[in-house]
């Protein structure tokens, strides 16, 4: 079927706005509404209980989804979880888990390096779970177990709705692993399920920041560099925010772990450098804010993406704020993606780049 942009100027904007529906479609197959529990394909579930370790392989934005999942699998399921870039993993004869599994994340299911990494795991008898958006794809066909995302066809080269769909499915997998490993109390499972079910509505709320993000984007559009910072589960989101901006606006952007700043990149801070900080209020918030103070003292302009509690606590230490709905350690990283996508989109729009077909990029990299 022909896919139309409809009222939207670009597929990227349309796909950003579709995330309420694409998330609902991706989450629902893995939730039992009557019992408020998660349920994933049995083949995947049986791998979780006895696993000693997992490797998670992907490229680009899908890799950042896998990297975010590390925080959930380790903290909630207590499973060692090692995300890696497919082009690195495949060539170094990696040591695979003895009793564990491999996880492959891909929108297209056709990325050459990711497919090659999957074949390596198969040859070495490590079962593969595939989180893919195209169920007829090569990666889906060759994996032992498929846990599809249902983001729908993604046309914009820069991935948006596929990313949040991947995050939501990975979250369900982490919860299922936590349960299989005896680390999830029934009450906690119910709370997480409620929070997942609320995500579509919360994404709609998160999209309300668009007008404000557009203002900030106009300002950023004239800058040469932008730094993105995050800690813990928001560190991969900072990386994804920087990637999105690079891809569609061609502005140099770097994502950094906030705590690593002092080991190098702080040397780059000069007056007027925009620093986007992804920091909803969590157990690491105060640490991130102390890093914000360090860059602010050197003239950086702080754009804080946070929830109401975080924005209140940051007070005057942020020059611009972007408000996220309330959430938890699973929903807030997913919701954080929305303003990051909008920021990249509106900066690109201001600069007049080809948002849906950025120069030098391909939607699916099927050759090495
Ligand atoms: C290309 C696309 C990216 C995507 C990456 C991985 O580089 O431009 O947007 O994240 O491939 O693609 P996959 O289909 O494996 O998720």
TrEMBL record:
<comment type="function">
    <text>Catalyzes the first step in hexosamine metabolism, converting fructose-6P into glucosamine-6P using glutamine as a nitrogen source.</text>
</comment>
<keyword id="KW-0032">Aminotransferase</keyword>
<dbReference type="GO" id="GO:0097367">
    <property type="term" value="F:carbohydrate derivative binding"/>
</dbReference>
<keyword id="KW-0963">Cytoplasm</keyword>
<feature type="domain" description="SIS">
    <location>
        <begin position="44"/>
        <end position="183"/>
    </location>
</feature>
<dbReference type="GO" id="GO:0046349">
    <property type="term" value="P:amino sugar biosynthetic process"/>
</dbReference>
<dbReference type="GO" id="GO:0006487">
    <property type="term" value="P:protein N-linked glycosylation"/>
</dbReference>
<dbReference type="GO" id="GO:0006047">
    <property type="term" value="P:UDP-N-acetylglucosamine metabolic process"/>
</dbReference>
<keyword id="KW-0315">Glutamine amidotransferase</keyword>
<feature type="domain" description="SIS">
    <location>
        <begin position="216"/>
        <end position="358"/>
    </location>
</feature>
<protein>
    <recommendedName>
        <fullName>Glutamine--fructose-6-phosphate aminotransferase [isomerizing]</fullName>
        <ecNumber>2.6.1.16</ecNumber>
    </recommendedName>
</protein>
<feature type="active site" description="For Fru-6P isomerization activity">
    <location>
        <position position="363"/>
    </location>
</feature>
<dbReference type="GO" id="GO:0005975">
    <property type="term" value="P:carbohydrate metabolic process"/>
</dbReference>
<comment type="subunit">
    <text>Homodimer.</text>
</comment>
<dbReference type="GO" id="GO:0006002">
    <property type="term" value="P:fructose 6-phosphate metabolic process"/>
</dbReference>
<keyword id="KW-0808">Transferase</keyword>
<dbReference type="GO" id="GO:0005829">
    <property type="term" value="C:cytosol"/>
</dbReference>
<dbReference type="GO" id="GO:0004360">
    <property type="term" value="F:glutamine-fructose-6-phosphate transaminase (isomerizing) activity"/>
</dbReference>
<keyword id="KW-0677">Repeat</keyword>
């Amino acid at each position: 079927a022909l896919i139309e942009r409809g009222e939207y100027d670009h597929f990227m904007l349309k796909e950003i706005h579709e995330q309420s529906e694409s998330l609902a479609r991706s989450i629902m197959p893995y939730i039992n509404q009557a019992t408020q529990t998660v349920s994933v394909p049995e083949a995947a579930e049986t791998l979780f209980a006895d696993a000693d370790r997992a490797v998670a392989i992907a490229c680009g934005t899908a890799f950042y989804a896998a990297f975010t999942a590390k925080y959930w699998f380790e903290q909630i399921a207590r499973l060692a979880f090692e995300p890696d870039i497919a082009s690195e993993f495949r060539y170094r004869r990696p040591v695979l888990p003895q009793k564990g599994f491999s996880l492959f994340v891909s929108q297209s299911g056709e990325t050459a390096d990711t497919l090659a990494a999957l074949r390596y795991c198969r040859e070495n008898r490590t079962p593969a779970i595939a989180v893919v958006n195209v169920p007829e794809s090569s990666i889906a066909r060759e994996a032992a177990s498929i846990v599809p995302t249902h983001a729908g066809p993604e046309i914009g080269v820069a991935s948006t709705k596929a990313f949040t769909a991947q995050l939501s499915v990975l979250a369900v997998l982490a919860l299922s692993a936590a349960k299989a490993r005896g680390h999830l109390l029934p009450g906690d499972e119910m709370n997480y399920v409620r929070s997942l079910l609320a995500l579509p509505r919360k994404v709609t709320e998160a999209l309300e920041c668009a007008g404000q993000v557009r203002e900030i984007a106009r300002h950023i559009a004239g800058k040469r560099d932008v730094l993105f910072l995050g800690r813990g589960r928001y560190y991969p989101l900072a990386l994804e925010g920087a990637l999105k901006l690079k891809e569609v606006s061609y502005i140099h952007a770097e994502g950094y772990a906030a705590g690593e700043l002092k080991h190098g990149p702080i040397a780059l801070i000069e007056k007027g450098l925009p620093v986007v900080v992804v920091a909803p209020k969590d157990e690491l918030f105060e640490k991130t804010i102390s890093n914000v103070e360090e860059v602010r003292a050197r003239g950086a302009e702080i754009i804080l993406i946070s929830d109401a509690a975080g924005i209140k606590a940051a007070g005057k230490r942020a020059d611009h704020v972007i408000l996220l709905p309330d959430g938890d350690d699973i929903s807030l990283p997913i919701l954080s993606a929305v303003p990051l996508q909008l920021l990249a989109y509106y900066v690109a729009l201001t600069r007049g780049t080809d948002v849906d077909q950025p120069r030098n990029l391909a939607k699916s990299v099927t050759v090495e």
